[in-house]
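Incident review: delayed structure delivery

Summary: a single-chain prediction request sat in the queue longer than the usual turnaround. Root cause was a stuck worker, restarted by the on-call engineer. No data loss occurred. The affected request and its eventual output are reproduced below so the record is complete for anyone auditing the incident later.

Affected input:
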Amino acid sequence: MHLALYLANLICKHLAETLTVSWASERMSKDAGIVDYSRSRRVTLVSAAVLVFLSITLGFSTFLPFYVLDIATLLLLLLALILGWASKRAIDYLPGEWHVRTVRVTPQEYREMVKKHMDAYGHLISSDVSCACVTALCLALVSQLLVMFLIFMLGEELLTTYGPQVITAVTIILNLVVAILGYSIGYKWAKVDPHPYITEPPTGYVLGYVEALADVPDLDVKYKVKLAERDGALAIADAEPAIGVKGMPDELQIKVQVSVSSIVYPYLVASYYKGPVVEEHKVHARIRARYPALFEYSMDGNVTIVVARFDIPSHTRSVPHISDSDFRKLGRALARVLLSLR
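Output delivered after worker restart:
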């Protein structure tokens, strides 16, 4: 029983951690004039008290039928989800004017900027919680089965002596775990309604492949980042790769495209405004990579298009994979092709 009460105290601390993170982010990003946490603090404290009370109450209700306790645990999970969602939605965004400027940085510098942006504003952004939802639902469904298994394992002698206390303590612990999971999922799932600048910056597979191209000598690989500033706080308003070929006009731009289906398939698309006129055709080339390269030439009005991709066989013994090293070789080969168009 002392253990259960100790864990009840822990859930209060855990539920308050979300606000602690928010307060820490508030200091780090200097966003005191951007968001107001006062309502969220009150909702979180009330949520912690309600969830702890219900978890302990259910722990002392083991005399109820099994199906009633199972339904009660599911309702506890649902309530925790709602309270977590409400706590985050209670964070208020304070309208104001943002000043935007554009900077060019290396892919590595952009990754560091994304990290700082997410450290400062990640708690305001919605997260994917599908896996966590499945875990919490499964735990809520089997929690009473775990209690019954414990009763079976105790044996008649121990059950007579310590059974009621142990069963109550374990039930309270499981309820607290369900409440913690539910609240955390609800909080992460919800999103505040701040300015569109406070969103998750674009990264994904594209950033990784852009970083791979940074080591190609003939390519000028940068990220064009729009930085929004307000009251001393910085946020990434938008960002996109800006890849060109050294010695070539700015009208020539290279885009990294990534197709994700059964495999991750990156390729490059070069567009050259008012570039040389080319006939539509395809060229295969060996570039010392796992797969041969395929260059597809075409015209779109007065824009010269060159698509560089890997020609992967339709039937392979293993799952196709394009490594950073091979993609770097593809970028190097495309740079040579574009330089030949001058």
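Verification: The radius of gyration is 28 Å.
Action items: add queue-age alerting; document worker restart procedure.
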